[in-house]
DNA sequence: GCTTGACCTTGTAGTGGCTTCAGGGTGTGT
DNA sequence: ACACACCCTGAAGCCACTACAAGGTCAAGC
């Protein structure tokens, strides 16, 4: 199977597949006589795994770690569970941040209810006066 | 006022101030005889505005647009309100995405409740079998 | 006058997870 | 013979910074 077919099967672009190979997430494919990459079922499974992790917004590092666990057949899945728990924590932390943000934005939005000169607009005034509180120095989530 | 003092006033780093200048968000400062940047009250206000927008997770483009509105004293604030509404939409859309993600992760997490060989782990199986549905082609949010 | 140290300057490269592009080679159908 | 879809590599771009290298400036203390 050539790269285009693989990409389509895994719902991603050809470039993404090559990128994963370069990053070491996907093992290098064999090559045909004309230097085309050639994939088998193992590659499909691996790529689907990666894409599913990405669909859950895991980072490449998290995925790399996860793949390391999965590739060790003697190991138990405790580490896998732990990683998923941590990632769930990231997602929940980010949700909390965004809910707080939403609150601030709604409050800001209510400061203006019409069409005024910008000087008189409560939103503009709010943006000038708000107190930027320094963001927590160390983030507990990698989600933007 | 020198750059370090300005940065401290606005709760950001010196590098960030120079970066905003390079990007055209903050007008270039005057220079002292020894080529140090020298800032006045207008710069403080402008930088605070920018930092407040960033604290609300607006992009540089959104901020640039907003500054354009604010700098036109003849204009009304309708465009400002609209931009804030749109941004609020981004935030809400991202919250919805992350809540869906959380649901999926919780469901996935429940598939394993102990320490099994990875082959037998419901989470690993889940990650292999999930159907990556193609993400909506065009994003309605710039938030990660 | 000399050193130390805090501050300032410019420029470049790195982050993540891709996407896009330039400049080519390969394979199939007409 | 040509078109056209697919493949290859390598480099650059995205965003909002951050970090670093290599140096200039200035006040205080010895």
From TrEMBL, chains A, B:
The record's keywords, sorted A to Z, are: DNA-binding
Q: Does the record's keyword annotation contain DNA-binding? A: yes
> What InterPro entries does the database record attribute to this sequence?
CadR-PbrR, DNA-bd_dom_put_sf, MerR-type_HTH_dom, MerR_fam
On whether Nucleotide-binding is a keyword of this UniProt record, the answer is no
A Pfam match is MerR_1
**Transmembrane feature ranges:** none
Superkingdom of the source species: Bacteria
Location of the HTH merR-type domain: 1-69
Q: What PANTHER family does the record point to? A: HTH-TYPE TRANSCRIPTIONAL REGULATOR ZNTR (PTHR30204:SF92), REDOX-CYCLING DRUG-SENSING TRANSCRIPTIONAL ACTIVATOR SOXR (PTHR30204)
* Protein name according to UniProt: MerR family transcriptional regulator
